[in-house]
Amino acid sequence: MLSLLYQEGPSTKGIFRRSGSAKTFKELKEKLDSGTEVDLACESIFVTASLFKDFLRNIPGSILSSQLCDKWVSVLDQGNNEEKIKSIQRLIEQLPRANVVLLRYIFGVLHGIEMRSEENQMNAFNLAVCIAPSLLWPPVSSTPDIESEFIKKISSLVQFLIENCCRIFGDEITSLFGEI
């Protein structure tokens, strides 16, 4: 999925914002969940993007770890950008290795899409609004007002991560997918 999103996302207007066919999404999700081989290249990139967000939402405790939720939310309240980046790197070090590897690829894709935002209309802010709720959620449910405020904070954090991903994850993030 990430490979397809890396290839097609930068040239797709509204990637992650528009939904694919609900019927196709449901059928493909059932096939993937049952272990059936699926050729996503034959499907709409919007369905693939929806499947990917669904995959992220189903990671137990979230990819950024709900246990670290308060720390993630408070990162942007810290000093200058350098201090924020250092805090983010320290939080990333506390995540399981599999989460870190996946995060690097996710932000490699998001960076590639953001670099062509003139074409796809998905700048860092727009991408963050679409993807942030799939990356982190609070460990306990809350009121709609608190949840809305939380999503705003996480979206700002994800926007910061996208805009600074090369400094956070390293410059090689731009070449993780090689020459596809």
From TrEMBL:
The keyword Phosphoprotein applies. Residues 1-169 form the Rho-GAP domain. One of its GO terms (molecular function) is GTPase activator activity. InterPro entries: ARHGAP20-like_RhoGAP, Rho_GTPase_activation_prot, RhoGAP_dom. Keywords: GTPase activation, Phosphoprotein. It holds the Pfam family RhoGAP. GO terms for biological process: regulation of Rho protein signal transduction; signal transduction. This is RHG20 protein. It comes from Sclerurus mexicanus.
